[in-house]
Amino acid sequence: NRKAFVFDLDGVIVDTAKYHFLAWQKIAQALHINFTHEDNELLKGVSRIRSLDIILELGNVQASQEDKDKWLIQKNEDYLSYLVDMDASEILPGVFKTLQLLKDKNQGIALGSASKNARPILEKTGILSYFDVIVDGNDVTNAKPDPEVFLKAAQLLNIDPKNAIVFEDSVAGIQAANRAEMVSVGIGEKTVLHEADYIFNDFTEIDQSFIEKLISQ
Ligand code: B16
Ligand code: MG
Q1: Is 114 touching ligand 1 by the criterion CB < 6 Å?
Q2: Ligand 1 center to residue 147 CA distance, Å?
Q3: Rounded CA separation 41/105 (Å)
Q4: Which residues have a catalytic role annotated?
Q5: Cβ-contact 130, 179 below 8 angstroms
Q6: Per-residue model confidence as pLDDT tens digits over 112-169
Q7: How many A from CA of 30 to the centre of ligand 2?
Q8: Where are the alpha helices (DSSP H) in 31-167?
């Protein structure tokens, strides 16, 4: 029984949200926009372009496309500078164990992320080889909650979407998984991710029997 296990990146495998926040905060400060940790929650699972628009909306700032393009480049260069020293210690608790279990059980393993920087992050943290398939921000035209990213992952694994399981930390990602008719597993707070089929705080709460249940059902 081979299922497709699709992992989101930021918030599921690694906590890159803290680096996105630092980089966006620099842009916001330069534009005199107040951008808080709370505001950063709005950017989770959201594309880079949409993230900038949300920040500009927060500050009620209008900008030309030229300026926006410039800030998008600046933000990404700054973000990448935080990734230079990234290593396996940044993999969130329980993730390695889950990936290894899925490998041992010969399951399909995919990444389904909005990030255009997914590959270097998987390389630096040493888990690239676990993934049979990578679908990221470079491969899709429609952002979550559109199911494109997850449907593409299942298709590349040659597994029916009904036999796919998605691990996600964002509301938009859970909605995308549900629209794809996949099993949705929320990683985070119950109150936020209540649309998910299952919810856990993190991967340390996901044990072998739960994975075996997902494989056999
Ligand atoms: P990049 P995920 C998402 O990753 C992040 O949650 C979101 O905050 C970020 O804006 C987006 O990737 C794009 O990232 O600027 O690296 O292309 O959660 O879908 O893995
Ligand atoms: Mg995420």
Answers
A1: yes
A2: 16
A3: 35
A4: 8, 10
A5: no
A6: 999 999 999 999 999 999 999 999 999 999 999 999 999 999 999 999 999 999 999 9
A7: 26
A8: 37-40, 48-58, 65-83, 95-104, 118-124, 148-157
